[in-house]
Every structure is written in structure tokens, then in C-alpha cells.
Amino acid sequence: MIVGVPREIKDNENRIAIVPAGVEVLRADGHTVLVERAGGVGSGISDEEFEEAGATIVDGHADVFAQADMIMKVKEPLPEEYALIRPGQIVFTYFHFAASRPLTEGMLAAGGVCIAYETVEQGATLPLLTPMSEVAGRLSIQQGAKFLEKPQMGRGILLGGIPGVEPATVMIIGAGIVGTNAAKMAAGMGANVILMDLNLDRLRYLDDVMPANVMTLYSNSFNVRKVLRFADLVVGAVLIPGAKAPALVTREDLKLMNEGAVIVDVAVDQGGCVETTRPTTHSNPTYIVDGIVHYCVANMPGAVGRTSTYGLTNVTLPYARVLARDGWRKAVRDDHGIRTGANVIEGKVTYGAVAEAFEMEHTPIESLL
Questions:
Q1: Do residue 147 and residue 63 come from a single domain?
Q2: Which residue is catalytic, options 197, 232, 253, 269?
Q3: Is 362 a catalytic residue?
Q4: Could you list the residue range(s) of the whole structural domain that residue 337 is in?
Q5: Do 21 and 33 belong to one domain?
Q6: Most CB within 10 Å of its CB: which of 21, 79, 174, 244?
Q7: Residues lower than pLDDT 70 in the chain
Q8: Do 233 and 143 sit in the same domain of this protein?
Q9: Pick the catalytic residue: 96, 197, 253, 294?
């Protein structure tokens, strides 16, 4: 199979979907790997390194799509890429369909085979989402601390405080991978952390293993509103796999918050868990609503491209090998993770939560096999 790896064109997206070690493995499996010129620069990987591993460097973005049987990306195709995808061509990347009707309709029209990283399951886990959730959770605190500074229109609060001056209060909604990593970072920087979730077993576990400055609290509307009154930094870390995130903080709730408080909505990829969330970019990361600073960058891990690329490709490569070896039909039939990753296949929505988000017809993937 010919595997194509284009350069990412989303604003400040510095990741790439393969590293030289992955090229070497796919080449050993008998496949051809095309990498767009300069695609790895943002991750600190040169064209020469890719060539030494056996990749063919291709100059044109469209040429990679035109020649490849399978496209490996990091972020969802942008509108200018929709027409580059051919019927039956495998596209293996993060899609987050439920957050974007235009993307969903674009992929339906293209007729490609869209396997979404974020819904690939392994047992009760989402292995291809985990490393980027770890990165985003940790970054949420770094960015939140920065935008709490007064020159960034924040409250002017040092996250960890100093002796004699209280630290910031960090409210984290969702105690999954993102929330847990955010809590670790915030606690390590000395903040007072309130970690909220619906799963009491999860809260009991985290209460045992987290440091003393992390308090767990059951998540409901009453408790969310109570904590918003004194929170300096709010991290939205809610995930319903493949589905649109619920809006747990409303615009009305913003009136409860102190002016200059910061919201970092990591759930923005799935529509956000704050009603006032809208996607932003690394070039223009924040906006203010009712005096509250919103940081809603839709590709947070792209800021640390080298770390993120190596973390992501560690987990995506085994699935890419299966798809390249078997083709999508056999891979979907034989591999549970790839089957759950099938979201839009040859003009049909095969993932229930995506169909539900837009009231579209759901076609069970089994019917296409």
C-alpha cells in the first residue's frame, strides 16, 4: 500500500503523523511511504531523516493525496483538503466529527474511509486519544497560568502564590486523562485544586493518590456554580467519546465569576463544555466574554510539536500497520479498535454519536462489510 503523510496546514499545527522509526517499520512491511517536504520541521524532524528511513519526499500537498491509498494525518482535513480525498481512500487522523457539521458533510461527499483516532477503543480506554490528552491536560495549566497574568487581561494572580499570599484556585471539570494531568500540574505548581467528576469510584481513587492540595468534589450544577464564584482558573476536561460535549457552564454562570478569571476549555475539539466556547488558534488564542478570558485552542498539543508527535506516533503506528496490511474492510472486521474508529465510510455515517449530533442516518458498520 502507498501511505501518504501530508504536512499539517492548520494554524500552528507542528505535529506530523509519522516519525522516521515509523517509516522504517512500514517500509519493512513492504509499503511505500510518501512524506510531504518539510512536513516534520515543526517536530524537529528533517526531510533527510525521513529519507534515510526510506520515505519518498513529495513536494506538493495535493500530490501526496493523489498518490496515496491511505492518508495519515494528525488533525482533521480542512475545507481546502476535502476535494483532495478520493472515494475509498483511507484517512486515518483525529476527526472530532460531532463538533463540525461542515466537516462531516465534506467527508460524506468525498466518499473516503474515515478512521478517527479519538474513537479507537481498547477495552475501556481510548489509546490514541490518551497521549494527546496527557499533553493537553498539562498544557492547560501552563496556558492558564500565563493568561492569569494582568498583561494577558487576567486577574493578575500567580498560580502558586508566595509565602503570605494565597495561591490561585483551579477548578477542573472532568477527572479523566485530561483532568488528572491538569490536576497534577496545578498541584505541583502550588495551586489549590478542585477536581470534579460524576464517577465516585474515580474520585475515591484520585482522592487517595493526589497530593493534599487537590480536593475532589462531585460534579453537579449546584457544585459547579458554587466553585465558579471563587475559581481563578477553570479547566474544561469533559469527554463523551465521539459525541458533542455537554455545556456544563452556561453564559449566565459567567456572571458568578471574578473578572479576569480564565477558562481553558480542552473539550473545544468536541464542541466545548462551556456555552461560550468557540475554537481559537495559537496565533489568536483568547477572547473575553463578560470579563472572563477564554482560551479555546483546538489543537493545543501542536504547540509542543516534538513531544506530541512522538507521543502520538507511539500509539498510532500499530493500527496504521494493520490498515496498510489488511485494507479497511478486513481491518474493521478483525480489529475491534479499528471498527470503533470507523466514523464515516464511503458516504455513510457509521458512528452512532456522530449521526445523533446532526440527526443524520446511522449506518451500522457491519452492514458495509
A1: no
A2: 269
A3: no
A4: 2-126+304-368
A5: yes
A6: 174
A7: none
A8: yes
A9: 96
